[in-house]
């Protein structure tokens, strides 16, 4: 199928294509081996209807060996961008900058860093093996920390700035260790950019942490109480997890926006993320429209795999939600228990003070101390309950929503394809009618339209197949990650519960002799 | 609902530790061998074994209700002969309301619960009901046993009637007037006490009593506070136990439906939560028995001790007044003889009271100490037992990837 792509005429076709990217165009490109080739460098591989380059060594895509089990999925061979193509300038513009993700034509998977920026020419000089070697050594060697929340500014315009530190040996970054200051809306901006670029073609983009007007207002207003410190800590941890998940994704890791987010000291303010901005309202409207559309699309699912997965994720979603609600109740009650235990400890201490029999008085004071320590334990356990268990569940509920979104995009893609087919059919009928009516000039136009729609149908089919392929891979990767995540968390949580019990044993064992000493 | 319940011979349900002599004193042994819960009353079967001549038979068995116990207590506390004795506090009214309500709400068919959850909750609530039942029986039994152990109180006529009369005592519960009367009497009492000690400047001559008074006032307040806080802790433990139910059920169902690699993990976690639930439930009930009940009992007992001190103070005031009256009489040289007699009476009464009160208060202290000792030891031992059972590393070892916790 891919092999049938005909290189469209260069030049004029290019510009308009860029704009069409919004509609879920194909990010799929063939590999580059054209690095050495023509100077009149061709289009970015991502442009939809074009073959990567007319200079391509033939459609390599036919030889793609897609392997669901491999973790490093995509090689980024650069499709070189000619430096004189004007559309390259606004690299970091809010327009969707399609990432180039060619599929390896060989069995070797070589993730490579990719840049459409001026560093691009460097890639020309590297030999393929070199690139592969370096890439293999680098895989996922990147560690992100979000720390030091700091309040900047005052009053309602205040915000929290977080330090994002990256430690990596990946060569795509300029340094091995660097850090920048970012605020919450920057994270949202990053996610928004990545989502616009990748979601509609089937990549599961990790969702950003949620906004919280109440929480943030408290912080802004300057309430220095434990609930606002808790809120900031919760957010910090969520942002860290978000970034870690995002960089784990091999495709997203290559994205220049992500790199800019991690590296550059100044970031243009992402105003589109505000809820009440024009973009925010547009988002809400789109969401509503999507929901309506989803209900009306009836897809003929020919692939049982997708149906199965849809069902599976639906189930998982329900169960995780239920569990999450229960765990949240647990956290709340454990905190209550901790507070009550502390109150009891104080009261027991006072009772011990008023008791006039010395040994009993001492024993009661000891009891009070034990209870205080137990209260500490409860607090720590509540902490674990929440940060280890509850937040994981929350994260995965949101991630599954992203998965469902991606499946929905596939449906939309299918719908588009079907619509194109219907339109083509109509055009053909119109042409037939015109033929009978014998209007030669209109006939030509009709024939042109038919050609146009034929291409669209083909593209639609290709897109659909591409997104299906991508989703399969993504889901495979996602499931792997999920299993790993859950296992780690469950073990950690189990250990925390066991730890608590063992500490309890120590405390009571220390108290027992005191009780026995009451004479 | 009808629930005949066999009383377990266990000691654990007794809130205050009676010295072992009580149980084995052959001259008078009282126990509640059985109890039945009917719609809104509990019927206790009181069995007595005695070698005392008063009783017609060596072994007796009667059925009594809570009101009968309260009546018995009131006859003691209103009897001036026993003014110098700490009257054992009456057992609290059996209160199944909260538990019954919960069971009812559960039974009304809450559709958000799965069958498994429902079964577990029902189990929890039934356990709770049973625990309350056992406690109330224990409280009533302790009351009787203290009476039986007290050298003076055990000889009371009403006590014999209570133990022997095989018909229904038909003790009318206090009607509103009497309740109100009782309420007013309490107010009068505290006002009186304030008057005696404050305004009239009654000097306490005896250091022992001065100390006891200060001590008891503070102690009583503190015990009351600690008791309240202990109750709250216990309730928190209970609600935690209830929280574990839906979690372990959800984990279990995730375990069965999940991908193969995650199944064991989820199931293990579900199992742990189930164990934790039972643990929390037991911790809650042990803290209830060993701590809450203990504190409650001594709250009431210390109140009874305070009452004793008040009565003595009253007697002292009477004595002082009699003294003053005698002086006045002597001055006027009128009715000296009756004043003298009255004064003698008051003096005697006061001295008797003081002597008896001293003994009682000393007993109270030693009772208190041994009760606390016993209960605190048992509490610690139980907590240890529970923590050890649920936290054994052995149970978690098979989980792949888990590091065995440091032993």
In short:
The complex is a heterodimer of chains A (519) and B (407). With 519 residues, chain A is mainly α. Chain A has helices spanning 14-20, 120-125, 128-138, 184-198, 213-221, 226-248, 250-253, 256-263, 278-296, 304-354, 358-437, 440-516; strands spanning 28-29, 101-102, 142-152, 159-168, 177-183.
Question: What can you see in these coordinates?
Answer:
The complex is a heterodimer of chains A (519) and B (407). Chain A is mainly alpha-helical. Chain A is built from twelve helices and five strands. In chain A, the strands form two sheets. A three-stranded antiparallel beta sheet of chain A has the order 3-4-5. A two-stranded parallel ribbon of chain A has the order 1-2. The longest helix of chain A has 80 residues, at 358-437. In chain A, 35% of the residues are buried. Residues 1-138 of chain A have low confidence and may be disordered. Chain B is built from nine helices and four strands, in the order E-H-E-E-E-H-H-H-H-H-H-H-H. A four-stranded antiparallel beta sheet of chain B has the order 1-2-3-4. In chain B, helix 8 (260-332) runs antiparallel to helix 9. The two termini of chain B are 49 Å apart. The interface between A and B is large, with 56 and 60 residues.
Salient structural properties:
heterodimer, A: 519 residues, mainly alpha, 3-stranded antiparallel beta sheet, two-stranded parallel sheet, disordered N terminus, B: 407 residues, alpha+beta, 4-stranded antiparallel beta sheet, 9 helices, disordered C terminus
SSE layout and pairing:
The complex is a heterodimer of chains A (519) and B (407).
Chain A: H1 14-20, E1 28-29, E2 101-102, H2 120-125, H3 128-138, E3 142-152, E4 159-168, E5 177-183, H4 184-198, H5 213-221, H6 226-248, H7 250-253, H8 256-263, H9 278-296, H10 304-354, H11 358-437, H12 440-516
Parallel strand pairs in A: 1-2
Antiparallel strand pairs in A: 3-4, 4-5
Helix pairs in contact in A: 5-6, 10-11, 11-12
Chain B: E1 3-6, H1 20-24, E2 28-37, E3 42-50, E4 59-65, H2 66-77, H3 97-107, H4 115-149, H5 157-164, H6 176-199, H7 207-257, H8 260-332, H9 336-391
Antiparallel strand pairs in B: 1-2, 2-3, 3-4
């Amino acid at each position: 199928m891919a092999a049938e792509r005909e290189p469209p005429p260069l030049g004029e076709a290019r510009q308009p294509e860029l704009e069409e990217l919004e509609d879920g165009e194909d990010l799929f490109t063939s590999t580059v081996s054209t690095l050495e080739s023509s100077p009149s460098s061709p289009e970015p591989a991502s442009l939809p209807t074009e073959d990567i380059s007319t200079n391509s060594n033939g459609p390599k895509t036919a030889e793609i060996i897609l392997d669901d089990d491999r973790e490093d999925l995509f090689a980024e061979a650069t499709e070189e961008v000619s430096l004189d193509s004007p559309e390259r300038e606004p690299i970091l513009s809010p327009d969707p900058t399609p990432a180039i993700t060619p599929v390896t034509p060989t069995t070797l998977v070589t993730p490579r860093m990719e840049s459409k920026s001026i560093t691009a020419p460097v890639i020309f000089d590297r030999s393929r093996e070199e690139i592969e070697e370096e890439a293999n050594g680098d895989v996922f060697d990147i560690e992100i920390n979000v720390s030091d929340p700091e309040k900047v500014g005052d009053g309602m315009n205040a915000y929290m700035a977080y330090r994002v530190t990256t430690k990596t040996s990946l060569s795509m970054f300029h340094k091995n260790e660097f850090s920048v200051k970012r605020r919450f809306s920057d994270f949202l901006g990053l996610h928004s950019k990545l989502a616009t670029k990748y979601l509609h073609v089937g990549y599961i983009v990790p969702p950003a942490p949620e906004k919280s007007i109440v929480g943030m207002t408290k912080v802004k207003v300057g309430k220095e109480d434990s609930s606002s410190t808790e809120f900031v800590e919760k957010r910090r941890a969520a942002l860290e997890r978000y970034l870690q998940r995002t960089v784990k994704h091999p495709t997203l890791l290559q994205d220049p926006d992500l790199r800019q987010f991690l590296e550059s000291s100044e970031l243009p303010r992402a105003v589109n993320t505000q809820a009440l901005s024009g973009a925010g309202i547009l988002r809400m409207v789109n969401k509503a429209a999507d929901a309506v559309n989803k209900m009306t699309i009836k897809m003929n699912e020919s692939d049982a795999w997708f149906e199965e997965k849809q069902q599976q994720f639906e189930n998982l979603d329900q169960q995780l939600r239920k569990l999450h609600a229960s765990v949240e109740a647990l956290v709340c009650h454990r905190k209550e228990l901790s507070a009550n235990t502390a109150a009891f400890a104080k009261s027991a201490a006072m009772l011990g003070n008023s008791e006039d029999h010395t040994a009993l008085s001492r024993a009661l004071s000891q009891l009070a101390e034990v209870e205080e320590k137990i209260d500490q334990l409860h607090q720590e356990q509540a902490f674990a309950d929440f940060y280890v268990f509850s937040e994981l569940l929350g994260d995965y509920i949101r991630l599954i929503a992203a998965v469902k979104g991606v499946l929905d995009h596939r449906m939309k893609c299918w719908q588009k394809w079907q619509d194109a087919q219907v339109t083509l059919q109509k055009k053909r009928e119109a042409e037939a009618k015109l033929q009978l009516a014998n209007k030669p000039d209109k006939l030509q136009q009709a024939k042109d339209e038919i050609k146009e729609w034929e291409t669209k149908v083909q593209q639609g089919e290709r897109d659909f197949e591409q997104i299906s392929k991508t989703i399969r891979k993504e889901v495979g990767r996602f499931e792997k990650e999920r299993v790993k995540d859950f296992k780690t968390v469950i073990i950690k949580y189990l250990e925390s519960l066991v730890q608590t019990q063992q500490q309890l044993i120590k405390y009571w064992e220390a108290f027992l002799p005191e009780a026995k000493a009451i004479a | 609902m009808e629930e005949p319940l066999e009383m377990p011979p266990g000691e654990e349900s007794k809130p205050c530790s009676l010295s072992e002599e009580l149980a084995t004193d052959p001259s008078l042994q009282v126990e509640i061998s059985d109890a039945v819960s009917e719609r809104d009353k509990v019927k206790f079967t009181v069995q007595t074994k005695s070698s005392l001549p008063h009783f017609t038979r060596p072994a007796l068995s009667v059925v009594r209700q809570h009101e009968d116990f309260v009546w018995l207590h009131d006859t003691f506390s209103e009897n001036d002969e026993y003014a110098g004795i700490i009257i054992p506090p009456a057992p609290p009214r059996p209160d199944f309301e909260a538990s019954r309500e919960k069971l009812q709400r559960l039974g009304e068919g809450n559709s958000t619960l799965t069958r498994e959850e429902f079964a577990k909750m029902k189990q929890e609530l039934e356990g709770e009901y049973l625990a309350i039942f056992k406690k109330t029986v224990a409280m009533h039994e302790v009351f009787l046993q203290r009476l039986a152990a007290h050298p003076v109180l055990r000889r009371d006529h009403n006590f014999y009637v209570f133990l022997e009369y095989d018909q229904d005592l038909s003790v009318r519960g206090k009607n509103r007037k009497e309740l109100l009367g009782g309420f007013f009497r309490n107010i009068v009492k505290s006002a009186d006490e304030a008057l005696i000690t404050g305004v009239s400047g009654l000097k306490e001559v005896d250091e022992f009593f001065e100390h006891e008074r200060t001590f008891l006032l503070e102690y009583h307040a503190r015990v009351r506070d600690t008791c309240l806080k202990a109750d709250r802790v216990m309730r928190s433990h209970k609600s935690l136990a209830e929280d574990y139910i839906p979690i372990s059920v959800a984990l279990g169902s995730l375990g069965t439906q999940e991908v193969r690699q995650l199944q064991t993990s989820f199931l293990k976690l579900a199992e742990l939560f189930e164990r934790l639930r039972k643990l929390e439930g037991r911790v809650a009930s042990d803290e209830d028995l060993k701590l809450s009940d203990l504190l409650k009992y001594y709250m009431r007992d210390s109140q009874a001790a305070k009452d004793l001190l008040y009565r003595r103070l009253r007697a002292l005031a009477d004595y002082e007044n009699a003294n003053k009256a005698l002086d006045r009489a002597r001055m006027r040289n009128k009715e000296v003889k009756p004043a003298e007699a009255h004064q003698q009476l008051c003096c005697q009464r006061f001295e008797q009271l003081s002597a008896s009160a001293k003994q009682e208060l000393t007993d109270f202290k030693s009772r208190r100490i041994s009760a606390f000792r016993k209960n605190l030891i048992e509490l610690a031992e139980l907590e240890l037992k529970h923590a050890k059972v649920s936290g054994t590393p052995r149970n978690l070892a098979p989980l792949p990837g888990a590091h065995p916790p440091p032993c």
